[in-house]
User: Fold Aldehyde dehydrogenase family protein from Paraburkholderia rhynchosiae.
Amino acid sequence: MKQVAAVINGESIQTRNTVAVLDPSSGEVIAETPDCGPAEIDLAVSAARRASHQWRKVAVADRARILRRFAQLIERDRDDLGHLEALQTGKPLRQARRDAELTARYFDFYASAVETHYGSSIPLNADTMIFTQWEPHGVTAHVIPWNYPMQIFARTIAPALAMGNCCVLKPAEEAPLTALRLASLALEAGLPAGALNVVTGYGETAGAALTGHSDIDHISFTGSVEVGRTIARAAANRVIPVTLELGGKSPNIVFADADMERAVPGVVNAILQMAGQTCSAGSRLLVHESVHDILVERIQQAFANVTIGPALSDLTLGPLISQAQRSRVLSFLDEARGNGAKIVAGGSALNGGVFGEGFFLQPTLIDDVDPDSPLGQEEVFGPVLAVTRFRDIDEAVQFANGTDYGLVAGVWTRDLSTAHRMIREVLAGQVFVNTYGASGGVELPFGGFKRSGYGREKGAEGLRSFAQIKTGVVAL
Ligand code: NAD
Assistant:
Protein backbone atom coordinates (compact mmCIF):
# COMPACT_ATOMS: atom_id res chain seq x y z
CA MET A 1 0.00 0.00 0.00
CA LYS A 2 1.33 3.40 -0.94
CA GLN A 3 1.63 5.83 2.01
CA VAL A 4 1.34 9.39 0.79
CA ALA A 5 2.29 12.31 3.05
CA ALA A 6 0.67 15.68 3.67
CA VAL A 7 2.75 18.71 2.63
CA ILE A 8 3.22 21.24 5.42
CA ASN A 9 5.88 23.96 5.34
CA GLY A 10 7.52 22.19 2.41
CA GLU A 11 7.92 18.96 4.38
CA SER A 12 6.25 15.57 4.18
CA ILE A 13 4.12 14.92 7.25
CA GLN A 14 2.62 11.55 8.25
CA THR A 15 0.15 10.73 11.01
CA ARG A 16 -0.37 7.51 12.97
CA ASN A 17 -3.92 7.07 11.66
CA THR A 18 -4.54 7.14 7.95
CA VAL A 19 -7.42 7.49 5.49
CA ALA A 20 -7.72 4.93 2.71
CA VAL A 21 -8.19 6.14 -0.87
CA LEU A 22 -10.12 3.79 -3.18
CA ASP A 23 -10.08 3.32 -6.93
CA PRO A 24 -13.81 3.65 -7.72
CA SER A 25 -13.35 1.58 -10.89
CA SER A 26 -12.35 -1.50 -8.86
CA GLY A 27 -13.25 -0.72 -5.26
CA GLU A 28 -9.62 -1.44 -4.28
CA VAL A 29 -7.54 0.64 -1.88
CA ILE A 30 -4.80 2.48 -3.81
CA ALA A 31 -3.20 4.66 -1.13
CA GLU A 32 -3.28 5.76 2.49
CA THR A 33 -3.11 9.45 3.39
CA PRO A 34 -2.65 11.18 6.75
CA ASP A 35 -5.68 11.61 8.99
CA CYS A 36 -4.83 15.19 9.93
CA GLY A 37 -6.37 16.77 13.00
CA PRO A 38 -6.09 20.10 14.82
CA ALA A 39 -2.33 19.67 15.49
CA GLU A 40 -1.42 19.27 11.80
CA ILE A 41 -3.84 22.03 10.77
CA ASP A 42 -2.22 24.33 13.30
CA LEU A 43 1.23 23.55 11.88
CA ALA A 44 0.00 24.27 8.36
CA VAL A 45 -1.73 27.55 9.25
CA SER A 46 1.37 28.74 11.20
CA ALA A 47 3.59 27.85 8.25
CA ALA A 48 1.32 29.78 5.89
CA ARG A 49 1.28 32.77 8.26
CA ARG A 50 5.09 32.86 8.45
CA ALA A 51 5.42 32.52 4.67
CA SER A 52 2.82 35.22 4.04
CA HIS A 53 4.99 37.94 5.58
CA GLN A 54 7.49 37.40 2.73
CA TRP A 55 5.31 36.20 -0.15
CA ARG A 56 3.08 39.28 -0.15
CA LYS A 57 6.19 41.42 -0.69
CA VAL A 58 7.57 39.39 -3.61
CA ALA A 59 7.36 41.52 -6.78
CA VAL A 60 4.35 40.67 -8.91
CA ALA A 61 6.60 39.74 -11.85
CA ASP A 62 8.50 37.28 -9.65
CA ARG A 63 5.31 35.73 -8.27
CA ALA A 64 4.07 35.37 -11.84
CA ARG A 65 7.34 33.75 -12.93
CA ILE A 66 7.02 31.06 -10.26
CA LEU A 67 3.37 30.40 -11.20
CA ARG A 68 4.35 30.07 -14.88
CA ARG A 69 7.11 27.63 -13.97
CA PHE A 70 4.55 25.67 -11.92
CA ALA A 71 2.30 25.56 -15.02
CA GLN A 72 5.19 24.20 -17.09
CA LEU A 73 5.86 21.43 -14.58
CA ILE A 74 2.18 20.47 -14.58
CA GLU A 75 2.32 20.26 -18.38
CA ARG A 76 5.50 18.20 -18.16
CA ASP A 77 3.76 15.74 -15.80
CA ARG A 78 0.38 15.88 -17.54
CA ASP A 79 0.23 12.15 -18.24
CA ASP A 80 1.16 11.10 -14.70
CA LEU A 81 -1.21 13.60 -13.15
CA GLY A 82 -3.99 12.53 -15.52
CA HIS A 83 -3.39 8.88 -14.68
CA LEU A 84 -3.55 9.57 -10.93
CA GLU A 85 -6.67 11.70 -11.31
CA ALA A 86 -8.41 9.00 -13.38
CA LEU A 87 -7.45 6.37 -10.81
CA GLN A 88 -8.76 8.24 -7.76
CA THR A 89 -11.92 9.77 -9.30
CA GLY A 90 -12.96 7.11 -11.85
CA LYS A 91 -13.17 9.65 -14.67
CA PRO A 92 -12.06 8.44 -18.11
CA LEU A 93 -8.34 8.97 -18.71
CA ARG A 94 -8.85 11.42 -21.58
CA GLN A 95 -10.93 13.72 -19.38
CA ALA A 96 -8.40 13.45 -16.57
CA ARG A 97 -5.52 14.44 -18.88
CA ARG A 98 -7.59 17.36 -20.09
CA ASP A 99 -8.11 18.36 -16.44
CA ALA A 100 -4.31 18.39 -16.02
CA GLU A 101 -3.98 20.72 -19.03
CA LEU A 102 -6.60 23.04 -17.58
CA THR A 103 -4.81 22.97 -14.23
CA ALA A 104 -1.68 24.27 -15.93
CA ARG A 105 -3.76 26.86 -17.79
CA TYR A 106 -5.10 28.29 -14.51
CA PHE A 107 -1.57 29.02 -13.27
CA ASP A 108 -0.60 30.60 -16.60
CA PHE A 109 -3.80 32.64 -16.71
CA TYR A 110 -3.49 34.03 -13.17
CA ALA A 111 0.23 34.73 -13.64
CA SER A 112 -0.76 37.01 -16.52
CA ALA A 113 -3.92 38.38 -14.93
CA VAL A 114 -2.19 39.52 -11.75
CA GLU A 115 0.44 41.41 -13.72
CA THR A 116 -2.26 43.68 -15.14
CA HIS A 117 -4.48 43.85 -12.05
CA TYR A 118 -4.23 47.49 -11.07
CA GLY A 119 -5.93 49.77 -8.62
CA SER A 120 -7.32 53.12 -9.75
CA SER A 121 -7.06 56.78 -8.91
CA ILE A 122 -10.08 58.84 -7.93
CA PRO A 123 -10.21 62.51 -9.00
CA LEU A 124 -11.93 63.99 -5.94
CA ASN A 125 -10.42 67.49 -5.98
CA ALA A 126 -7.21 69.41 -6.73
CA ASP A 127 -5.90 69.18 -3.17
CA THR A 128 -6.09 65.45 -2.65
CA MET A 129 -4.49 62.42 -4.25
CA ILE A 130 -6.64 59.31 -3.89
CA PHE A 131 -5.86 55.85 -5.11
CA THR A 132 -6.91 52.25 -4.53
CA GLN A 133 -4.72 49.20 -4.27
CA TRP A 134 -5.43 45.49 -3.96
CA GLU A 135 -3.91 43.64 -1.04
CA PRO A 136 -3.93 39.93 -0.17
CA HIS A 137 -6.08 38.65 2.69
CA GLY A 138 -3.11 36.88 4.25
CA VAL A 139 -3.73 33.17 4.99
CA THR A 140 -6.45 31.60 2.88
CA ALA A 141 -8.13 28.24 3.63
CA HIS A 142 -9.37 26.12 0.73
CA VAL A 143 -11.67 23.09 1.03
CA ILE A 144 -12.45 21.25 -2.20
CA PRO A 145 -14.51 18.22 -3.33
CA TRP A 146 -13.56 14.99 -5.11
CA ASN A 147 -15.06 15.42 -8.57
CA TYR A 148 -12.51 17.78 -10.18
CA PRO A 149 -9.68 17.77 -7.63
CA MET A 150 -6.99 19.20 -9.93
CA GLN A 151 -9.08 21.80 -11.68
CA ILE A 152 -10.68 23.07 -8.48
CA PHE A 153 -7.30 23.08 -6.72
CA ALA A 154 -6.01 25.30 -9.52
CA ARG A 155 -8.96 27.64 -9.82
CA THR A 156 -8.81 28.47 -6.12
CA ILE A 157 -5.05 28.27 -5.40
CA ALA A 158 -3.75 30.04 -8.53
CA PRO A 159 -5.55 33.38 -7.93
CA ALA A 160 -4.89 33.19 -4.17
CA LEU A 161 -1.12 32.76 -4.63
CA ALA A 162 -1.02 35.26 -7.49
CA MET A 163 -2.52 37.93 -5.22
CA GLY A 164 0.11 37.23 -2.55
CA ASN A 165 -1.83 35.01 -0.12
CA CYS A 166 -0.43 31.86 1.45
CA CYS A 167 -2.69 28.86 1.42
CA VAL A 168 -3.77 25.77 3.31
CA LEU A 169 -5.83 23.39 1.18
CA LYS A 170 -7.79 20.35 2.28
CA PRO A 171 -8.77 18.07 -0.59
CA ALA A 172 -11.65 15.61 -0.27
CA GLU A 173 -10.80 12.41 1.59
CA GLU A 174 -11.92 10.38 -1.44
CA ALA A 175 -9.48 12.01 -3.91
CA PRO A 176 -6.52 13.80 -2.30
CA LEU A 177 -3.66 12.34 -4.35
CA THR A 178 -3.28 14.86 -7.17
CA ALA A 179 -3.46 17.84 -4.78
CA LEU A 180 -0.53 16.34 -2.85
CA ARG A 181 1.41 15.77 -6.08
CA LEU A 182 0.72 19.36 -7.15
CA ALA A 183 1.99 20.68 -3.80
CA SER A 184 5.34 18.94 -4.44
CA LEU A 185 5.50 20.37 -7.97
CA ALA A 186 4.87 23.86 -6.59
CA LEU A 187 7.96 23.49 -4.39
CA GLU A 188 9.96 22.31 -7.41
CA ALA A 189 8.76 25.41 -9.26
CA GLY A 190 10.32 27.58 -6.55
CA LEU A 191 7.30 28.45 -4.42
CA PRO A 192 8.62 29.17 -0.90
CA ALA A 193 8.00 26.49 1.75
CA GLY A 194 4.80 27.25 3.66
CA ALA A 195 3.19 29.29 0.88
CA LEU A 196 1.08 26.27 -0.09
CA ASN A 197 0.26 23.52 2.39
CA VAL A 198 -1.95 20.51 1.66
CA VAL A 199 -3.50 18.72 4.63
CA THR A 200 -5.55 15.57 4.19
CA GLY A 201 -8.25 13.94 6.31
CA TYR A 202 -11.97 13.92 6.89
CA GLY A 203 -14.25 16.91 6.53
CA GLU A 204 -15.64 16.76 10.06
CA THR A 205 -12.14 16.74 11.57
CA ALA A 206 -9.45 18.20 9.26
CA GLY A 207 -11.91 20.36 7.29
CA ALA A 208 -13.67 21.69 10.38
CA ALA A 209 -10.35 22.36 12.17
CA LEU A 210 -9.13 24.35 9.16
CA THR A 211 -12.27 26.39 8.52
CA GLY A 212 -12.70 27.08 12.25
CA HIS A 213 -9.04 28.01 12.81
CA SER A 214 -8.55 31.35 14.55
CA ASP A 215 -5.67 32.48 12.31
CA ILE A 216 -7.11 32.24 8.79
CA ASP A 217 -8.27 35.33 6.91
CA HIS A 218 -10.45 33.93 4.12
CA ILE A 219 -12.19 30.66 3.20
CA SER A 220 -12.85 29.31 -0.27
CA PHE A 221 -15.19 26.33 -0.15
CA THR A 222 -16.43 24.15 -3.00
CA GLY A 223 -18.87 21.40 -2.10
CA SER A 224 -22.39 20.71 -0.93
CA VAL A 225 -24.91 23.28 0.29
CA GLU A 226 -25.14 21.53 3.65
CA VAL A 227 -21.41 21.78 4.40
CA GLY A 228 -21.34 25.26 2.83
CA ARG A 229 -23.80 26.44 5.49
CA THR A 230 -21.62 25.06 8.29
CA ILE A 231 -18.56 26.77 6.83
CA ALA A 232 -20.37 30.08 6.34
CA ARG A 233 -21.28 29.96 10.05
CA ALA A 234 -17.62 29.33 10.98
CA ALA A 235 -16.64 32.32 8.81
CA ALA A 236 -19.38 34.48 10.35
CA ASN A 237 -18.14 33.70 13.87
CA ARG A 238 -14.76 35.16 12.98
CA VAL A 239 -16.11 37.78 10.53
CA ILE A 240 -13.92 36.65 7.66
CA PRO A 241 -14.96 36.53 3.99
CA VAL A 242 -15.96 33.25 2.40
CA THR A 243 -16.53 32.16 -1.18
CA LEU A 244 -19.08 29.37 -1.55
CA GLU A 245 -19.19 27.31 -4.76
CA LEU A 246 -22.04 24.91 -4.06
CA GLY A 247 -24.34 22.55 -5.90
CA GLY A 248 -26.70 22.86 -8.82
CA LYS A 249 -29.76 21.46 -10.58
CA SER A 250 -28.97 23.00 -13.90
CA PRO A 251 -31.44 22.89 -16.79
CA ASN A 252 -30.82 22.34 -20.48
CA ILE A 253 -33.77 24.08 -22.17
CA VAL A 254 -34.56 22.91 -25.70
CA PHE A 255 -36.93 25.03 -27.80
CA ALA A 256 -38.90 23.81 -30.82
CA ASP A 257 -36.53 25.51 -33.29
CA ALA A 258 -33.34 24.03 -31.77
CA ASP A 259 -30.71 22.46 -34.00
CA MET A 260 -31.02 18.86 -32.80
CA GLU A 261 -27.63 17.90 -34.24
CA ARG A 262 -26.07 20.23 -31.70
CA ALA A 263 -28.58 19.86 -28.89
CA VAL A 264 -28.51 16.06 -28.56
CA PRO A 265 -24.75 15.64 -27.96
CA GLY A 266 -24.75 18.84 -25.89
CA VAL A 267 -27.48 17.55 -23.57
CA VAL A 268 -25.96 14.05 -23.34
CA ASN A 269 -22.45 15.27 -22.54
CA ALA A 270 -23.76 17.78 -19.98
CA ILE A 271 -25.19 14.96 -17.86
CA LEU A 272 -22.67 12.17 -18.48
CA GLN A 273 -19.44 14.04 -17.91
CA MET A 274 -17.82 12.69 -14.73
CA ALA A 275 -20.85 10.35 -14.48
CA GLY A 276 -23.15 13.27 -13.67
CA GLN A 277 -21.10 14.16 -10.58
CA THR A 278 -20.43 17.69 -11.76
CA CYS A 279 -21.77 20.75 -9.92
CA SER A 280 -22.80 22.23 -13.25
CA ALA A 281 -24.20 18.95 -14.68
CA GLY A 282 -27.19 19.56 -16.95
CA SER A 283 -29.37 17.28 -14.84
CA ARG A 284 -32.76 18.62 -15.98
CA LEU A 285 -33.94 18.57 -19.57
CA LEU A 286 -36.74 21.07 -20.17
CA VAL A 287 -38.09 20.46 -23.65
CA HIS A 288 -40.80 22.12 -25.73
CA GLU A 289 -43.76 19.73 -26.03
CA SER A 290 -43.63 19.79 -29.85
CA VAL A 291 -40.11 18.26 -29.96
CA HIS A 292 -40.35 16.18 -26.81
CA ASP A 293 -40.84 12.77 -28.46
CA ILE A 294 -38.08 13.11 -31.03
CA LEU A 295 -35.57 14.46 -28.50
CA VAL A 296 -36.30 11.79 -25.88
CA GLU A 297 -35.96 9.08 -28.53
CA ARG A 298 -32.60 10.43 -29.67
CA ILE A 299 -31.27 10.68 -26.13
CA GLN A 300 -32.44 7.12 -25.45
CA GLN A 301 -30.43 6.00 -28.49
CA ALA A 302 -27.39 7.98 -27.39
CA PHE A 303 -27.56 6.49 -23.86
CA ALA A 304 -27.84 2.98 -25.36
CA ASN A 305 -24.59 3.60 -27.26
CA VAL A 306 -22.61 4.92 -24.30
CA THR A 307 -19.54 2.81 -23.54
CA ILE A 308 -19.03 2.20 -19.84
CA GLY A 309 -15.96 0.90 -18.02
CA PRO A 310 -12.99 1.52 -15.73
CA ALA A 311 -11.34 4.93 -15.90
CA LEU A 312 -8.15 3.61 -17.45
CA SER A 313 -10.05 1.94 -20.33
CA ASP A 314 -10.91 5.50 -21.33
CA LEU A 315 -14.51 4.94 -22.44
CA THR A 316 -17.32 7.49 -22.16
CA LEU A 317 -18.69 6.74 -18.71
CA GLY A 318 -16.76 5.69 -15.61
CA PRO A 319 -18.03 4.70 -12.16
CA LEU A 320 -19.47 6.87 -9.42
CA ILE A 321 -17.02 7.92 -6.73
CA SER A 322 -18.10 5.48 -4.02
CA GLN A 323 -20.52 2.81 -2.99
CA ALA A 324 -22.25 5.38 -0.76
CA GLN A 325 -22.72 7.76 -3.68
CA ARG A 326 -24.13 5.00 -5.88
CA SER A 327 -26.54 3.92 -3.13
CA ARG A 328 -27.67 7.51 -2.75
CA VAL A 329 -28.41 7.78 -6.48
CA LEU A 330 -30.20 4.42 -6.49
CA SER A 331 -32.38 5.52 -3.58
CA PHE A 332 -33.54 8.53 -5.66
CA LEU A 333 -34.46 6.09 -8.44
CA ASP A 334 -36.27 3.71 -6.05
CA GLU A 335 -38.31 6.56 -4.65
CA ALA A 336 -39.14 7.79 -8.15
CA ARG A 337 -40.19 4.27 -9.20
CA GLY A 338 -42.44 4.09 -6.15
CA ASN A 339 -44.11 7.28 -7.36
CA GLY A 340 -44.66 5.85 -10.85
CA ALA A 341 -41.69 7.49 -12.63
CA LYS A 342 -41.20 6.65 -16.31
CA ILE A 343 -37.61 5.35 -16.46
CA VAL A 344 -37.08 5.09 -20.22
CA ALA A 345 -33.36 4.21 -20.16
CA GLY A 346 -31.01 2.68 -17.58
CA GLY A 347 -31.93 2.79 -13.92
CA SER A 348 -29.69 0.00 -12.58
CA ALA A 349 -26.28 -0.57 -11.05
CA LEU A 350 -23.75 -2.50 -13.15
CA ASN A 351 -21.79 -5.29 -11.43
CA GLY A 352 -19.51 -8.19 -12.38
CA GLY A 353 -17.52 -8.71 -15.59
CA VAL A 354 -15.55 -5.59 -16.54
CA PHE A 355 -17.43 -3.73 -13.80
CA GLY A 356 -16.09 -6.01 -11.05
CA GLU A 357 -16.53 -4.41 -7.64
CA GLY A 358 -16.56 -0.88 -9.13
CA PHE A 359 -19.36 1.60 -8.51
CA PHE A 360 -20.94 1.69 -11.97
CA LEU A 361 -24.47 2.80 -12.87
CA GLN A 362 -26.29 2.87 -16.20
CA PRO A 363 -26.97 6.26 -17.79
CA THR A 364 -30.56 6.87 -16.78
CA LEU A 365 -33.31 8.85 -18.49
CA ILE A 366 -36.56 9.60 -16.69
CA ASP A 367 -39.43 11.10 -18.66
CA ASP A 368 -42.24 13.40 -17.58
CA VAL A 369 -40.70 14.29 -14.24
CA ASP A 370 -42.87 16.51 -12.04
CA PRO A 371 -40.74 19.66 -11.60
CA ASP A 372 -41.71 19.78 -7.92
CA SER A 373 -40.71 16.17 -7.18
CA PRO A 374 -37.31 15.28 -5.62
CA LEU A 375 -35.94 14.34 -9.07
CA GLY A 376 -36.99 17.75 -10.36
CA GLN A 377 -35.59 19.64 -7.38
CA GLU A 378 -32.66 17.88 -5.73
CA GLU A 379 -29.08 17.38 -6.84
CA VAL A 380 -28.81 13.63 -7.56
CA PHE A 381 -25.10 13.73 -8.52
CA GLY A 382 -25.19 10.75 -10.87
CA PRO A 383 -25.80 10.04 -14.59
CA VAL A 384 -29.54 10.67 -14.24
CA LEU A 385 -31.39 13.04 -16.56
CA ALA A 386 -34.90 14.22 -15.59
CA VAL A 387 -37.12 15.33 -18.51
CA THR A 388 -39.99 17.83 -18.17
CA ARG A 389 -42.08 19.29 -21.03
CA PHE A 390 -42.92 22.98 -21.29
CA ARG A 391 -45.59 24.73 -23.38
CA ASP A 392 -44.10 28.19 -23.96
CA ILE A 393 -41.18 30.42 -23.04
CA ASP A 394 -42.85 31.69 -19.87
CA GLU A 395 -43.26 28.16 -18.59
CA ALA A 396 -39.66 27.37 -19.59
CA VAL A 397 -38.44 30.31 -17.48
CA GLN A 398 -40.72 29.31 -14.61
CA PHE A 399 -39.40 25.73 -14.57
CA ALA A 400 -35.78 26.82 -15.11
CA ASN A 401 -35.97 29.13 -12.08
CA GLY A 402 -38.14 26.78 -10.02
CA THR A 403 -35.43 25.20 -7.86
CA ASP A 404 -33.30 26.47 -4.98
CA TYR A 405 -30.22 26.36 -7.21
CA GLY A 406 -28.87 28.72 -9.87
CA LEU A 407 -25.46 27.64 -11.12
CA VAL A 408 -25.59 27.12 -14.90
CA ALA A 409 -28.21 26.82 -17.67
CA GLY A 410 -28.14 25.77 -21.32
CA VAL A 411 -30.53 27.15 -23.95
CA TRP A 412 -30.97 25.57 -27.37
CA THR A 413 -32.69 27.76 -29.96
CA ARG A 414 -32.06 29.44 -33.32
CA ASP A 415 -34.04 32.50 -32.32
CA LEU A 416 -31.94 35.47 -31.19
CA SER A 417 -34.69 37.03 -29.16
CA THR A 418 -35.47 33.78 -27.31
CA ALA A 419 -31.75 33.35 -26.59
CA HIS A 420 -31.35 36.83 -25.13
CA ARG A 421 -34.58 36.70 -23.19
CA MET A 422 -33.47 33.45 -21.57
CA ILE A 423 -30.05 34.86 -20.68
CA ARG A 424 -31.80 37.79 -19.05
CA GLU A 425 -34.47 35.85 -17.18
CA VAL A 426 -32.80 32.65 -16.06
CA LEU A 427 -31.31 32.98 -12.58
CA ALA A 428 -27.91 31.33 -12.93
CA GLY A 429 -24.24 32.33 -12.81
CA GLN A 430 -23.64 31.21 -16.40
CA VAL A 431 -26.14 30.82 -19.25
CA PHE A 432 -24.95 29.07 -22.42
CA VAL A 433 -26.73 29.24 -25.77
CA ASN A 434 -26.31 26.38 -28.27
CA THR A 435 -23.44 25.02 -26.22
CA TYR A 436 -22.94 23.90 -22.65
CA GLY A 437 -19.79 24.61 -20.68
CA ALA A 438 -16.82 26.28 -22.27
CA SER A 439 -13.96 23.77 -22.37
CA GLY A 440 -13.15 24.30 -18.73
CA GLY A 441 -13.92 28.01 -18.84
CA VAL A 442 -10.79 29.14 -17.00
CA GLU A 443 -11.35 32.70 -18.23
CA LEU A 444 -15.08 32.90 -17.39
CA PRO A 445 -16.34 34.09 -14.00
CA PHE A 446 -18.15 31.18 -12.37
CA GLY A 447 -20.40 30.91 -9.33
CA GLY A 448 -23.93 30.57 -8.16
CA PHE A 449 -27.15 32.46 -7.74
CA LYS A 450 -29.42 31.44 -4.86
CA ARG A 451 -28.34 28.32 -2.92
CA SER A 452 -25.60 27.57 -5.47
CA GLY A 453 -23.40 29.93 -3.47
CA TYR A 454 -21.85 33.37 -3.51
CA GLY A 455 -18.64 34.98 -4.63
CA ARG A 456 -17.02 34.17 -7.95
CA GLU A 457 -14.01 32.14 -8.98
CA LYS A 458 -12.39 31.79 -12.43
CA GLY A 459 -11.63 34.61 -14.83
CA ALA A 460 -10.22 37.98 -13.81
CA GLU A 461 -13.10 38.19 -11.32
CA GLY A 462 -11.48 35.32 -9.39
CA LEU A 463 -8.53 37.53 -8.41
CA ARG A 464 -10.84 39.93 -6.57
CA SER A 465 -12.12 37.12 -4.35
CA PHE A 466 -8.60 36.68 -3.00
CA ALA A 467 -7.83 40.36 -2.38
CA GLN A 468 -9.17 43.31 -0.52
CA ILE A 469 -9.18 46.84 -1.78
CA LYS A 470 -7.55 49.64 0.18
CA THR A 471 -8.08 53.33 -0.47
CA GLY A 472 -5.13 55.70 0.09
CA VAL A 473 -5.86 59.41 0.58
CA VAL A 474 -3.05 62.00 0.57
CA ALA A 475 -3.74 65.68 1.15
CA LEU A 476 -1.38 67.68 -1.07
P1 NAD B 1 -19.03 17.85 0.54
O1 NAD B 1 -19.62 19.17 0.88
O2 NAD B 1 -19.49 16.65 1.28
O3 NAD B 1 -17.44 17.88 0.74
C1 NAD B 1 -16.65 18.87 0.15
C2 NAD B 1 -15.41 19.07 0.99
O4 NAD B 1 -15.80 19.56 2.28
C3 NAD B 1 -14.59 17.80 1.26
O5 NAD B 1 -13.22 18.12 1.21
C4 NAD B 1 -15.00 17.42 2.66
O6 NAD B 1 -14.03 16.68 3.35
C5 NAD B 1 -15.18 18.78 3.29
N1 NAD B 1 -16.05 18.81 4.47
C6 NAD B 1 -17.09 17.97 4.77
N2 NAD B 1 -17.63 18.31 5.96
C7 NAD B 1 -16.93 19.38 6.42
C8 NAD B 1 -17.02 20.20 7.58
N3 NAD B 1 -17.95 19.98 8.52
N4 NAD B 1 -16.17 21.23 7.71
C9 NAD B 1 -15.24 21.49 6.75
N5 NAD B 1 -15.09 20.74 5.65
C10 NAD B 1 -15.94 19.71 5.47
O7 NAD B 1 -19.22 17.69 -1.01
P2 NAD B 1 -18.77 16.48 -1.95
O8 NAD B 1 -19.71 15.36 -1.74
O9 NAD B 1 -17.32 16.22 -1.78
O10 NAD B 1 -18.96 17.15 -3.37
C11 NAD B 1 -20.16 17.20 -4.01
C12 NAD B 1 -20.80 18.56 -3.86
O11 NAD B 1 -19.91 19.59 -4.28
C13 NAD B 1 -22.01 18.70 -4.76
O12 NAD B 1 -23.04 19.36 -4.09
C14 NAD B 1 -21.48 19.55 -5.91
O13 NAD B 1 -22.46 20.24 -6.63
C15 NAD B 1 -20.55 20.46 -5.20
N6 NAD B 1 -19.58 21.04 -6.14
C16 NAD B 1 -19.68 22.37 -6.47
C17 NAD B 1 -18.81 22.94 -7.40
C18 NAD B 1 -18.91 24.39 -7.79
O14 NAD B 1 -17.96 24.91 -8.34
N7 NAD B 1 -20.01 25.07 -7.55
C19 NAD B 1 -17.82 22.14 -7.99
C20 NAD B 1 -17.75 20.80 -7.64
C21 NAD B 1 -18.64 20.26 -6.70
Observations:
- The mean pLDDT is 97.
